[in-house]
Task: structure prediction
Amino acid sequence: MEITCHCGNIKLSVENPPAEVGKCNCSICRRYAALWGYYSPEEVNIAYEKEKSVFYIWGDREVEFHRCNLCGCVTHYVTTPKCPDKVVAVNMNMAPLEVLAAISVREIDGANY
Ligand SMILES: [Zn+2]
Result:
């Protein structure tokens, strides 16, 4: 299935939707209002129509939060080599509504983690 930013510049392809999405209340996730579907890097194909994504990195520098520089949507994050886990998290709010509606949401208390 394909997950895209609003303007279609960033296209994320995965075989199957995630079993659940994580809704995290940490300082960055709550601002992005993202619903994360977690994958290993080889499970996600990332393509660009017009230009590459830009990203924000902060704090312990373990995660890059990628967004489309054209429409502003936060589409995914990837862990850096500083992080022990290799993860690509896809913002499932970019998925079709009917796909998102069928996925259960797990609240993550990242603010107090
Ligand atoms: Zn876009």
